[in-house]
Amino acid sequence: MTSSATVPVSLGERSYDIVIEPGLLERLPGRLEHLDVRGKVGVVTDRHVKRHYAKQVIAALTKKRLEPVLIALPPGERTKTLTSVQSILDVLATHRFERSSWLLALGGGVVGDITGFAAAIYQRGIPFVQIPTTLVAQVDSSVGGKTGVDHRLGKNLIGAFYQPRAVWIDPMTLRTLPEREWIAGLAEVIKYGIIADEPFFSFLEREMPAIRVRQPDGVAAIIKRSCEIKASVVAADEREGDRRRILNYGHTIGHALEALGGYRSLIHGEAVGIGLFQEADLACYQGMCDRSTVQRIGDVVQDAGLSVDMPRWPSSRLWKAMLHDKKVSGGQVVGVWPEKIGQVRVAPLGRKVFERWYAERKDAPPQRVAAKASRK
């Protein structure tokens, strides 16, 4: 994997670059100098990522005569709480961090969201940099300035919009990513093709076998294109007033499934993968797209190694969990529904429609092999 790229996120005075560069962590001192990082630097990570990369990052900071402070949290979605944010703030206050001090988020989406939120509220805002080490974080959560934590009643209910000063992506970190996490991250990649780019979706259909085994060129391509799409959407709608809502496709049902499982049974990308297919099926039920669109989505999700099957929750429990999502508006569940590959619409969902669909739905796409053969 040798290709490098820079993707700008154009937000006026809050603009920054996403730098995608294999081996970036080895050249971290130069990146720090380019951004003029000075003084105390808190490195927030989790205990898994710490084992692989913390020593290298701390050495780079020390080489630049900075003052690193390592903050290692337990791994997993259940760490994404106000208690964890409080623990970061305690360290910053104890070490007398100032407004000119920095935070580095070294890890996956949970680390990035927590670190960004802590940066947003400590002394009313200090600068931070995202250094994502998982696929989900590299293609999605590290970009766009959404920070925050979960509440026991719903995911991401507490947080703030706060942009990083940079996103530094080293695709080489994906080599140490567990297989389950890698596959789960592909759900967010597939999402981008569905919401905005049919040619990219077709690329995923063709190249998914190579992508599954982390073929370097395929990995580089999906990271770059995903970041480009995310950056363009964020630049058009930073605070999710309109256009940015399309990024929630697959997450209305996905977030509800995560919450119902207590953030234990499904990791984020697995839940989103189910949501991609089930929300397409629900869109088809409402007459928004044809069955072939649902079929294609179901096929590529499964080719990525993800399930499309809905866990056996009563419809009333699932609906209640969906009502606690931050995307609810005026007491209504608002979803993102594909009209065709590359085009979606945002529209409310009625409970009666949802319950009828839920009672009649089928989990897996039918005639999968025949459908794939007909597209060749």
Automatic annotation (TrEMBL):
Cofactor note: Binds 1 divalent metal cation per subunit. Can use either Co(2+) or Zn(2+).
Compartments, as annotated in UniProt: Cytoplasm
Major site of localization recorded for this protein: cytoplasm
UniProt record, GO biological process: amino acid biosynthetic process; aromatic amino acid family biosynthetic process; chorismate biosynthetic process
Domain 3-dehydroquinate synthase C-terminal: 185-328
Catalytic activity: 7-phospho-2-dehydro-3-deoxy-D-arabino-heptonate = 3-dehydroquinate + phosphate
HAMAP family (UniProt xref): DHQ_synthase (MF_00110)
Protein name: 3-dehydroquinate synthase
Native source organism of the sequence: Nitrospira moscoviensis
